[in-house]
Specification:
It contains twelve helices and twelve strands. It is of the alpha/beta class. Helix 3 packs parallel to helix 5 and helix 11 packs across helix 12. It holds the Pfam family Bac_luciferase. InterPro entries: Luciferase-like_dom, Luciferase-like_sf, SsuD_RutA_monooxygenase.
């Protein structure tokens, strides 16, 4: 390959915080201590802090995490039902002023119907994304530092203002989802759309219009030898019939298009008696057995890099790694991603 060949750029890398739904606060506190340091050492930008009604307040987790690291950037899930957009903008501005630190924002609509019902939200799927667009627009306008007057279907502000946030500390905006409504919302907001990746051969199906950014959340188990990688994967995620049953129930309860899509893919793979498809690196058992919400890529560095190249070629600019069990998980995943970047041509 000639030295003049243009290559893909390294995607922005985040890890994922473990769930705080369990009652073992001591364990979660230990995880909260170590993950920001792991991310710093492995050259990850930060970690996703996701949210639902059962979890700790993501803002509390975010503020604790930045105290443990000089550069860690929390990617905070923002659900409109939990707080007014003014409160989000004021929190971002306060962290920027007091800590000189940045947070990124992942706008979500909530995929569990029971969570929405418990908070009295009766908007349908598409209208929740309409509300999300207004919400993000208000947050962005407030962070610019000027007084904001806004009259929308869901939010009204009259000369509202928060502290101005320097441009280098303003958050990156992300929107999670795969549905047409989510795609429209991400475009309207000017946000990076985050989704769960399809089969590597189908990566182009998730790409948006030329020039639009998208990212994916995925687990990666990669080693020099594919047998070593698969041995780790099988040990970490053994067959679990009970978990499969739970996942089927969750899929029926969820309004999320990605939940339904991955569930259908997992069922098809199970009927075919395969772990994945295509080059054999794409693995759905962790999702199918309710151990995590995302697919995995498993194999040698070269095999995983080969799969990743297809996503990079389709425009992936952000990768969010599943919850790491050790610092080494982040290091090995980054090695595979770097190998994919080195081999992948610049996408159009």
């Amino acid at each position: 390959m000639s030295q003049d060949t243009a290559h893909a750029t390294m995607p922005v890398l985040y890890a994922t915080f473990p769930s705080s739904a369990h009652d073992d606060v001591v364990t979660f506190s230990g995880e909260l201590d170590q993950l920001p340091r792991w991310c710093d050492s492995a050259s990850y930008r930060g970690a996703l802090i996701y949210t639902d009604n059962s979890l700790m307040d993501p803002w509390v987790v975010a503020q604790e995490s930045i105290r443990r690291s000089p550069s860690f950037v929390p990617l905070v899930a923002i659900q409109p039902l939990y707080q007014h957009p003014f409160a989000v903008a004021r929190t971002v501005a306060s962290i920027a002023s007091l800590r000189r630190r940045r947070v990124d924002l992942n706008f979500v609509t909530g995929g569990f119907k029971a969570d929405l019902v418990s908070l009295g939200d009766d908007l349908d799927h598409d209208r929740r994304y309409d509300r999300l667009v207004e919400y993000a627009d208000v947050v962005r306008a407030l962070l610019a530092g000027s007084r904001v007057t806004y009259a929308g279907a869901h939010y009204r502000l009259e000369s509202a203002k928060v502290r101005s946030v320097p441009a280098d500390l303003r958050p990156g905006f992300f929107v999670s989802g795969s549905s047409p409504s989510c795609r429209r919302a991400a475009k309207a907001i000017g946000a990076v759309r985050l989704c769960y990746p399809p089969w590597p051969d189908d990566a182009a199906s998730e790409a948006g219009e030329p020039g639009t950014a998208w990212g994916m959340r995925v687990g990666i188990i990669a080693r020099d030898d594919r047998d070593d990688a698969w041995a780790i994967a099988e040990t970490r995620f053994p067959p679990d019939a009970r978990g499969v049953g739970k996942q089927r129930i969750i899929s029926r309860m969820s309004e999320s298009s990605w939940q339904r899509k991955l569930s259908q893919m997992a069922e098809a793979a199970a009927r075919a008696g395969s772990a994945g498809a295509g080059d054999g690196t794409y693995w759905l058992r962790p999702f199918q057995s309710y151990k995590t919400f995302c697919p995995y890529l498993v194999g040698s560095y070269d095999e995983v890099a080969g799969a990743l190249q297809r996503y990079l070629a389709a425009g992936v600019s952000t990768i969010i790694l599943d919850v790491p069990t050790s610092y080494e998980d982040l290091v090995h995943a980054r090695l595979a991603i770097a190998r994919a970047v080195d081999a992948a041509p610049l996408s159009a």
